[in-house]
Amino acid sequence: xxxxxxxxxxxxxxxxxxxxxxxxxxxxxxxxxxxxxxxxxxxxxxxxxxxxxxxxxxxxxxxxxxxxxxxxxxxxxxxxxxxxxxxxxxxxxxxxxxxxxxxxxxxxxxxxxxx
Length: 115
Hints:
Elements: E1 3-12, E2 15-24, E3 35-41, E4 48-51, H1 53-61, E5 65-66, H2 68-77, H3 79-88
Parallel strand pairs: 1-5
Antiparallel strand pairs: 1-2, 2-3, 3-4
């Protein structure tokens, strides 16, 4: 069974939040998850994320692959660095995992100058 760690959309219209779940890769987007690892609230400014580290490490150890978005979120909060240090056998006790992510700057249209 190929397992993925991905986001599952929850919430209401125009007010989404996401659960970070371990799920079979063949399962539907809104399908039943094997385990809930945490949640991500992009509507809060700055975006808030909470992850159960032990569950995340367990699923990463068993071969679950994070989706591109989840891998990006894990890297932003420092979970990926902590996992790789733990896997290499280094001291990871002083590493803190952040609970917020930095917001990307919005893309702005450049106005053409009148000539």
